[in-house]
Amino acid sequence: ILSQQHHYRKKLSVSTQKAALRKNLLERRDETSADLRDISSKKIYQNLKQIDAYNTSQNIACYFPIGSEINTQEIMLDILEKGKNLLLPRITENDIVFHIITNLEKLEEGSFGIMEPRNDYKKAVKIDCILVPTIAISKSGIRLGYGKGYYDRFLSTTKAVKISLTYSKQIIKSIPNDAYDIKMDWIVTEDEIIKTR
C-alpha cells in the first residue's frame, strides 16, 4: 500500500508539474506573431522533407492546426499531391482514430474546435509515419502535449515513425515524465532536425 501511495503521489506531482509547464509554454507559444508562425512553418516543412522516413512513407498521419500551432497546411497538401495517403485524427469517445482523407474540403468541426474527418471516411489500417502536435519537447524526445492523453494512448499502440513538429523556442532541457510518455523519434523545428535515438 505504501508503494502504491508513493506511486500515486509521484504520478500526481508529474501531472501537476506538467500542467504548470504547459500553461507557461502555451503562453510563450501564443506570443508568436502570425507572420513569424508562417515563416517558421514554411521552414519546418522544408526541414521535414529532408527526413527519409517522411519521404519514403506512404501512409502519413498529420493534424489540423489550432491556435498558435505550426501551420501544417503545406505539409498536408504535399502528402496529397504526392499521391500518398493523408491520415487525419478524429476523436471518438476517449480515443483518437485516424481516417484517410482525399481532400481538405470535406472536414467538419469536431472536438475542441479542431477540423476532423467525417465519420464516413475510411479508417486508416496502416500508419508509416505520424506528425505529432507538440507544446514542448526535450532533446531526448520526451513530449509535452495538451494533457488529455489521446496521442500518448495512440502512440503506445503504433510502430509508426514519430515526428514532433515544434518551434525552436519550445525545446526545453527536461520535461517531467512517467512510464506512459512515448518518446518521439525526430524533432523538426525551423532551425534544426534532431534525431532523438
Can you walk through the features of this model?
This protein is an alpha/beta fold. The protein contains 5 helices and 11 strands, in the order αααβαβββββββαβββ. The chain is globular, with a radius of gyration of 17 Å. The model has no long low-confidence stretch (mean pLDDT 87).
List keywords for this structure.
alpha/beta, seven-stranded mixed sheet
Q: Strand order, biggest sheet? A: 3-2-1-6-9-10-11
Q: How many DSSP E strands?
A: 11
- Taken as a percent bin, the fraction of beta residues is 15-25%
Counting H and I runs of at least 4 residues, what is the number of helices?
Answer: 5
Gyration radius over CA: 17 Å
Which descriptor suits the 3D outline? globular
Largest sheet: 7 strands, mixed
Write a brief structural summary.
By secondary structure, the chain is α/β, with parallel strands linked by helices. It has five helices and eleven strands; from the N terminus they run H-H-H-E-H-E-E-E-E-E-E-E-H-E-E-E.
Q: What is the fold's blueprint, element by element?
A:
Elements: H1 2-30, H2 34-48, H3 52-55, E1 59-61, H4 73-81, E2 85-92, E3 95-101, E4 107-109, E5 115-117, E6 129-133, E7 136-137, E8 143-144, H5 150-155, E9 161-165, E10 186-188, E11 193-195
Parallel strand pairs: 1-2, 1-6, 6-9, 9-10
Antiparallel strand pairs: 2-3, 4-5, 7-8, 10-11
